[in-house]
Amino acid sequence: MTQVSSNGQTPHHEERRQDLTMQIPVFLLRKLYLKGSLKNNENGFTFKLKNSLAPGTAVAIHPLKVDGVEYPLTAITISSVDGEVKASEVTESKAFPIKVGVEITMNVTGTPLAKGSHKLDISLQTKEAGKLSFDVTDDIV
Question: What domains, with CATH codes, occur in the chain?
Fold first, then answer.
C-alpha cells in the first residue's frame, strides 16, 4: 500500500519536488537579475529581475538583504505588467506570476544606498521549484 501524506502526495513525490530545488544552479538563478538595474530613487532604491528560464509562480517572498542589512517585506513592492503587490502580501492564494521575458521591478522603501558596489541576497518560494535563493553584486553610480 502506498503512503499518502497530508497534502495527498506520496512521500516519493515530495522527495522529487524537494530535489527539484537543487536542480537550478545558482549561476542560472543569478541570470534572473538585470545587471545595472540597481538605482536609488526618492523613497529608497529599485532593481529589476527578468525571467529567462521557465514560467513560475511566486507564492512567498523572503526578506531582502543588501550588504547584510535585512529589509522587511512590508518595505518591498513588486510590480510588472501583471500588477503591483507588497512582498508581504504574496501567498499561495495571492501568488505573483513570474512570466518568461517580463521585467519585474522590486521597489524598496528605505534609505537610498551609498554609491559603490552592493551585495543583494534575494530569496523567494515558487510553486514549481520550491525555494530559490541567490546573491548578486551591482553598483550604484
Answer: 26-140 (2.60.40)
